[in-house]
Amino acid sequence: MLEPNTLARVIRKHRKAAKLSQMQLAEMAGVGKTVVFDIEKCKETVKLNTLRKILKILNINVQLVSPLLNKQMNENEKS
Predict the structure, then answer these.
(1) Whole-angstrom distance, CA of residue 8 vs CA of residue 29
(2) Confidence check: pLDDT of 47 > 80
(3) To the nearest 10°, the Cα dihedral for 64, 6, 21, 62?
(4) How deeply is 67 buried, as exposed, middle or buried, from its count of CB atoms within 10 A (0-12, 13-18, 19+)?
(5) Domains, the chain, ranges and CATH?
C-alpha cells in the first residue's frame, strides 16, 4: 500500500530534481498554490484528479496492482 508520507517524499524529490518551486509546479499543473504544499505535508484530502495532474507534470507513473484485475486479464487472454 502506498502510504501518504511515501508519496509526499517521492513528489518532493521529483519536484526538487526538476528544480521547481512548489508554486511553479502548481502553476504548471494548473492547480491551486497550496495543493503542492498540502501533498508534500501528507494532507490526505487532496482530490485524485488534482494529484494526477501533479504526477503527470513530474512524469511519475503509479501502477495499480490487483489480483482481481490480473485474474480477469488472464481469463480474457484465454478467450
Answers:
(1) 16
(2) yes
(3) -10
(4) exposed
(5) 4-78 (1.10.260.40)
